[in-house]
Each structure stands twice: as C-alpha cells, then as structure tokens.
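Hi P.,

Sorry for the delay on this. The queue was packed all week, but I finally got your sequence through. Input first:
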Amino acid sequence: MSLDTTRIAYATIVRKEVSRFMRIWQQTLMPPVITTSLYFVIFGNLIGPRIGSMEGFRYMDFIVPGLILMSVITNAYSNVSSSFFGAKFQRSIEELQVSPTPNWVILAGYVTGGMVRGLLVGLVVTIVALMFSRLRLHSVPVALSVILLTAMLFSLAGFINGLFARNFDDVSIIPTFVLTPLIYLGGVFYTINLLPPFWQTVSHVNPILYMINGFRYGFIGISDIGLGLSFAIAVTFIVVLFGASLYLLERGYGIRD
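Then the structure:
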C-alpha cells in the first residue's frame, strides 16, 4: 500500500469517527459540559469555601485541572469503545480488514477519532471553567503534552474494551466499575498528601494519579508526583496498550470468533 493510499485510508477513518460523534453532538458534547458544570457549582462554589485552600490555592482552582482531564479520559475512552464495538456488531470492521488497509492504520484512525472527541470536550469544559475559576497556565508545553498523551492512552484502552466486548453491556462495564473509581481516587478532588501513608502508597498504583498531577502542574505548578515519572508512566502505558491492541487486531480477537 503506497504512502498516499495509507494517508487517505487513515484520513477516511478519522473523518468517519469525527462525523459520527459530531452528528449527535447533543449526546456526545453537551452531557459532559453539564456534568462538569454541576461539579463546579457543587464542589467549587458550595463546598469549596468550607474546605478553604488546598496546597495554597483556592479549592476551585485546585480541582479544575482534574475535572478537565476527567472529561477527556471518559470521552476518549467511550468514543473508541462504543464505535469499534458498533463496527464489530455491524460487521463493517471485517470489510475494513479484508481491504489493503494495514491494521496499524485502522488502529491509528480509531484512536485519533477518540482523541479528537476527548480533546474537543476538554476544550469546551475549559471554556466553562473560565466562568467559575481564575484559570492560568504555569506551563503550556506540559499541559498540552499531558492532555495529548492522556487522550491517546485512554483511546487505546477503549479500543481494547471494544475488542473484548461481546455485547453492548460489556462496553459500559469497564467505565462503570474500573475507570470511574480510578478517576475519583486519582486525586481529582484532593491531594494525596492528605492521605495516611498506607493509602498514599496504594494511590501510587493508580496510573490516572500521575496524569492528573502532571496536568495540574501544567496549570498551577504543583504536583504530588515527579513530572518525569508522570510522563514515563503515560508513555509506558501507551506503548504497552498500542502493542497489545495491534496484536489483538492482527489476530482478529473478538472479530473472527
């Protein structure tokens, strides 16, 4: 397959993915904005003043980076898992696989689509946050790098979920029972320095903790985790998940069964 043909195949998959969620933007873009706005109102305006400052910052300013990244994680993940399972269910993925399109292009197209949705929702949530918080950026390169790596990582994770899913219920099991608890226990609403030593150690097993802290550093310049470690964890997970996704796709796992 020539380079031009590969580029066209990749662009076609991405365009299909983006148009898919943009056609129903009321269901894909608006709910995260409404949910996050409620977090801002309840945790920021109502509970925040009672909590006071967190690590020297207003509580609202402290939680904003975590809430933005939370919306990116959930939307990047759900977009790929639901879209790829839908392609399996309709058997359209089989037609794509018998075409000359390489599997890595198929994977890259779906992952890019998930990243676009995650980043778009993150941008809208950031605009909403401007109404509640005095947003500032301590380091633009760090913030952009972390949000891009996070969107890529959870798009890959959603792809694996879509591969393993046998029915529509399987698509929602992981987000409900695994992803959501990891997000809430990843330091979105608190610093792990408030936890007892044992639970601080347990928290370090949660990969989302590293991404939220890296993103928080990009905004307000503080982090419970070393910045280098945050990047190392994100890149390691991306490499592992990309390799696993490509291997499973080439084996036809969940597609030819």
